[in-house]
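Quick question, first post here. What does this chain look like in 3D?
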Amino acid sequence: MNAAANPAPSMLSSASSSHGLHLGLWAVQGVLALVFMGVGLVKLFTPYELLASQVAWVGAAPVALVRFIGLSEVLGALGLVLPAATRIKPVLTGLAALGLTLVMVLAVGVHVVRGEGYVLALPLLLGVLAAFVAWGRLTQVTLDARHEAFIARKIA
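> Answer (accepted):
Ran it through. Tokens below.
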């Protein structure tokens, strides 16, 4: 009997767990992309005075910094989805997640320094989720490897 036709049970469980992780990563990437796109666009296009009246830390930050953070979040959101979806430089998805993790680490630091402990939950959660995507896409379920395996199966 051909071993390739009947893979060992451990190979099947490994493949299914990898598939589950892949789907979980896509779900988290989608949620993060929506969140970061939304908050990034707000920081980019809301008049500074209005934003400063609604978000405490904005009033203490220069306009250029607020806009830069917004741009970083929008580009990060695009980076979470587009490279992976198009398979064009998919490693950028993991790197975008790393960048967003850094943005959230810095956000936590700012809120701690400002004594705004009441707002730490969201940047902590987003940072952990972004770190999960970075870990998953850079070390566990790399899209390049999946694509190469898919092509190899089609050729064989």
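The mean pLDDT is 88.
DSSP finds six helices and no strands in the chain.
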